[in-house]
């Protein structure tokens, strides 16, 4: 069983971090990534709009949860 971590957040937050990117393009990319994540049973959305620690913990939780299901 595999897992795909889709890392993203609100386009406005990304734009604040990377103002050299066009907000419209960020919106498009985030939308595409969310669509992919919603359609793929192996994908998990990780919101990176919070702290690095919170994003890391959400990622680790998703991995541990997926790994635990392998042994059920």
Our measurement of the CA-to-CA distance between the termini, rounded to an integer number of angstroms, reads 12 Å
Principal-axis shape equals flat
Largest sheet: 2 strands, parallel
Q: Which structural class do you get from the secondary structure elements?
A: alpha+beta
Number of domains: 1
Q: Topology as H/E string?
A: EHHEH
Instruction: Provide the helix percentage.
Output: 55-70%
Average the pLDDT over all residues and give the rounded result.
Answer: 95
Helix count, DSSP H or I runs of 4 or more residues: 3
Low-confidence stretches: none
Indicate the radius of gyration in whole angstroms. Answer: 14 Å
User: How many DSSP E strands?
Assistant: 2
Strand line-up in the sheet with most strands:
1-2
- Bin the strand percentage: 5-15%
Question: Could you explain the architecture of this structure?
Answer:
- With 72 residues, the chain is of the alpha+beta class.
- It has one domain (4-70).
- 60% of the residues lie in helices and 14% in strands.
- It is built from three helices and two strands; from the N terminus they run E-H-H-E-H.
- Strands 1-2 form a two-stranded parallel ribbon.
- Helix 1 (11-17) packs across helix 2.
- The longest helix has 19 residues, at 52-70.
- It is flat.
- The model has no long low-confidence stretch (mean pLDDT 95).
